[in-house]
TrEMBL record:
Superkingdom, taxonomy of origin: Bacteria
PANTHER family from the UniProt entry: HTH-TYPE TRANSCRIPTIONAL REPRESSOR PURR-RELATED, LACI-RELATED TRANSCRIPTIONAL REPRESSOR
Domain HTH lacI-type: 5-61
Lineage: Bacteria, Bacillati, Bacillota, Bacilli, Bacillales
Name recorded for this polypeptide: LacI family transcriptional regulator
């Protein structure tokens, strides 16, 4: 029989005091974020959270009512203001619109929180007035631990945390990118390159996997994992363009420019398209460019962008439906819901010049 994983065992593993571990796992102040993250990760790796009664829920929630009581409650939408995750975003904003519509149809309110620090987050929570949480985009492990600690049901959209169990909702990124890449190869492209940091998010990584598997199935060699275009820093257009220009200059000098650029999202695709045009490349005459997400700006590109339509509002609605199901069936197996996404053919992609 496996030995119980105690706070002391975690402390010994990390070389810190049991007091530090207790503070970190209870969500109390007095521990910096870096230490808290280390404790959470070690606790998960050692199996602490998989034990029954692993930690005491310090915040008690009143029992959920039904009927009119339920209609008086709200759902917390947590969207930390990082990586351009705001309601004004052409991507994230549409997801929030879907959440709001689904909650309104259920007669439920919505409270949006953009806090990204765990120690501040716990102070603004009133769990007794909340049915559950829908997390949108990247959220730190320490924040999710706070939600998990108080027993608030949650569903995450476009994000998952290997340390915190939850239901999740994603677009079917891998299959969609696989189909888009196969379409490009069917039109004659053999020199394709993926543009986007594959460590930026789970969605970017899954899109890279779909691209890579399509090339491997056609016995074409994908870019190496250490290629600089797979490690773009941030999502600032000026930084992306600068890094892409450096990469493009090397490719032009070596005469190894690809005939198609498969970008991790529309924002990257539109940014590199401008850089290509400034260097005198014709799109799609000299090089095809594709995106992913189908944000509104994709139609305004010159030429309009071939992309994958992610049904963003549908992802929001699916998350609300899953959350309400989870509330009524708390012991049901966790689910990862994949929403189908379709290719949108526009003028930025065509067969390569012979």
């Amino acid at each position: 029989m496996a030995k119980k994983v105690t706070m002391q065992k975690i402390a010994d593993h990390l070389g810190v005091s049991k007091f530090v571990v207790s503070k970190s796992l209870s969500g109390k102040g007095g521990v910096n974020e870096t230490t808290r993250e280390r404790v959470i990760q070690a606790a998960s790796q050692l199996g602490y959270f998989t034990q029954k009664n692993a930690y005491v829920q310090n915040i008690k929630r009143s029992s959920q009512g039904s009927g009119s009581d339920r209609n008086k409650q709200s759902v917390l939408v947590l969207m930390p203001n990082i990586r351009s995750q705001t309601q004004d975003s052409l991507y994230w904003g549409k997801i929030v619109d879907g959440i709001a519509l689904a909650l309104d149809q259920e007669g439920l309110g919505m409270v949006i929180v953009s806090e990204h620090r765990a120690d501040n987050f716990v102070n603004i929570l009133n769990p007794n007035g909340l049915l559950g949480l829908v997390g949108v985009g990247q959220i730190s492990t320490s924040l999710l631990l706070e939600v998990h600690r108080i027993g608030l049901p949650m569903v995450l959209i476009d994000h998952e945390d290997p340390l915190i169990p939850s239901d999740t909702v994603f677009a079917n990124n891998t299959d969609s990118m696989n189909r888009l890449s196969n379409h490009l190869m069917a039109t004659g492209h053999k020199l394709l390159h993926f543009i986007g940091n594959i460590r930026y998010s789970r969605s970017f990584r899954d899109r890279w996997i779909g691209f890579r598997s399509a090339l491997e199935e056609s016995e074409l060699k994908p870019p190496a994992g250490d290629d600089e275009m797979l490690q773009l820093e941030g999502m600032d257009d000026a930084i992306i363009q600068e890094q892409f220009n450096q990469w493009m200059a090397k490719r032009k000098k070596a005469k190894t420019m690809p005939t198609a650029l498969v970008c991790a999202n529309d924002f990257i695709a539109l940014t590199v398209s401008e850089a290509l045009k400034e260097e005198g490349f014709s799109i799609p005459g000299d090089i095809s460019v594709t995106g992913f997400d189908n944000i509104e700006d994709a139609t305004r590109g010159v030429p309009p962008l071939t992309t994958v339509h992610v049904p963003k509002e549908a992802m929001g609605r699916a998350a609300v439906e899953k959350l309400l199901n989870r509330i009524h069936n708390p012991s049901a197996p966790l689910e990862k819901i994949l929403i189908a996404a379709d290719i949108v053919h526009r003028d930025s992609a065509a067969g390569p010049q012979s």
